[in-house]
Amino acid sequence: MPSSATTGPVTAVVGGIGSNRDFTFYFYNPVISNLQPSAAPVGGNITINGSGFGAYQGGSTVQFNALTAQVRSWSDTSITVIVPSNATSGPITATVGGIVSNGAQFTLIEALSKRSRSRAFLLLPGQSAAR
Fold first, then answer.
1. Cis before 41? omega within 30
2. Cα separation, 116 vs 120, whole angstroms
3. Structural domain of residue 102, as residue ranges?
4. Number of folded domains in the chain?
5. Are 32 and 92 in contact, with CB atoms under 8 Å apart?
6. Is residue 33 in some structural domain?
7. For residue 64, is it left (φ>0), alpha (ψ between -120 and 50) or beta?
8. Cα separation of 63 and 84, whole Å?
9. Is residue 62 included in any domain, yes or no?
10. How far apart are CA 73 and CA 129, in angstroms?
11. Which is the most buried residue in 6, 102, 111, 122, by most CB within 10 A?
12. For residue 91, is it within any domain?
């Protein structure tokens, strides 16, 4: 199958004679247009918008830097997934029928721990920062 193949009628040629064109070949080439949102924390939802995903998930998958995500919903133009616990910033791809889509950049929003939070104080003249 050439990489430029698209959906359309198929004609078989044998001995110089072409067949009828009654058979239509449907080629699914998954393409990601954008992510909504493009940044989220672990456990957050990301909607992948695009085309060629197929009406049903079947054996298709979504990966965050090659880490498979749990799918919440799937359609030919939109997929909603949950950001996996070990996800990192990087490309999100969809694999449909063994064909990997283009990658769309995802940014992981890191959760703040209590230790990582800092406090800011406004010191007026004559005040000390010691507590």
1. no
2. 13
3. 29-108
4. 1
5. yes
6. yes
7. beta
8. 9
9. yes
10. 53
11. 102
12. yes
Residue linked to tokens 């498979």:
68
What is the spatial distance between Cα 63 and Cα 46, in angstroms, rounded to a whole number?
Answer: 12
Check if the beta carbon of residue 92 is closer than 8 Å to that of residue 107. no
Which tokens sit at 61?
Answer: 């998958």
Is residue 14 within 8 A of residue 36, CB to CB? The reply is no
First and final C-alpha spacing in the chain: 72
What does the pLDDT look like over 93-125, one tens digit per residue?
999 989 999 999 999 998 776 565 556 656 566
Q: What is the CATH number of the domain that holds 56?
A: 2.60.40.10
CA 101 to chain centre: 9
pLDDT tens per residue across span 6-45: 667 777 788 888 777 666 666 668 999 999 999 999 999 9
